[in-house]
Design brief:
Elements (H helix, E strand, L loop, with lengths): L6 H13 L4 E3 L12 H7 L5 H9 L3 H11 L2 E8 L15 E5 L16 E3 L3 H6 L6 E4 L13 E2 L1 E4 L2 E4 L1 H9 L5 E6 L2 E8 L2 E4 L5 E2 L14 H6 L11 E3 L1
Helix pairs in contact: 1-4, 2-3
Length: 246
């Protein structure tokens, strides 16, 4: 089901984070359908309201539009999800691409044949996706590929959809944070060697592009309540310059 908060509240959350100096905001969730709390939809669903009230509701900006306007002005990375079966989805504009290949030898393998591939991609609604297509924004896939015993030990850095490579959420957040337009996948004859974000920031991978994550102990200091961000009760020093994941 849909996340219960209307998206004008999500927009306010993002706006507050950037007012506190956050570096990038990434969403570990997708918005694949319109907000059911859009004023025009409420006007059409409520029985017994007068025509004047109904017309006033229809004239208000939609919550998706409010959220999109904030995304256009900020460094936001929207989440996407791979789906392992064919989905009947609305065909939007081509998915924004931010990954290129750097072959380290003539015999280097095409990384497309090494990366996890899925037939469907759960995208965000067009108004939000287009808003994140500007040069400061991005899109990242938050799907995982558990191993045969169901445990996640290695995390993909890239996925393949429709014959093209797309970054995972953490990789795209790093690209946007460093102001780069492209992430480079380095490949040699043995397979993928690393993903390069910018000068001095290169992440080594195994030959199929996976990264071993560092599992730290639970640390409540890493988490901040969205309620406190919305109410302005957070010390901006805890936010300033950070990469925030919602």
């Amino acid at each position: 089901g849909q996340w219960p908060w209307p998206r004008n509240i999500i927009a306010q959350l993002v706006q507050n984070l950037f007012a506190m100096g956050v570096g990038v905001v990434g969403f570990d969730m997708a918005f694949p359908e319109p907000d059911r709390m859009n004023p025009a939809d409420i006007a059409d669903s409520l029985a017994g309201i007068d025509d004047t009230t109904r017309d006033k509701l229809r004239s208000l900006s939609g919550n998706d539009e409010v959220f999109a306007n904030i995304i256009r002005q900020t460094r936001v990375v929207l989440g996407q999800a791979m789906y392992w079966e064919e989905l009947e989805t609305v065909k939007g504009p081509p998915v924004k691409k931010s990954v290129a290949t750097r072959k380290l030898s003539k015999s280097a393998i095409d990384p497309i044949y090494l990366l996890p591939t899925a037939p469907s991609l759960v995208r965000n609604i067009p108004i939000l996706e287009e808003a994140a297509n500007h040069k400061m924004g991005g899109h990242g896939i938050f799907s995982l590929v558990p191993e045969v015993d169901g445990i996640v030990r290695r995390v993909p850095s890239l996925f393949v959809y429709d014959g093209h490579m797309f970054p995972t959420l953490f990789l795209e957040i790093l690209r946007v944070a460093t102001g780069r337009q492209t992430t480079l996948v380095e490949v040699n004859a043995a397979g993928i060697n690393a993903v390069a974000i910018t000068k001095g920031l290169k992440l080594p991978t195994d030959k199929i592009g996976r990264i071993y994550p560092y599992f730290s102990k639970s640390d409540t200091a890493k988490y901040i309540s969205a309620r406190d961000v919305l109410s302005g009760m957070v010390d901006p020093e805890r936010i300033k310059g950070k990469l925030a994941i919602v």
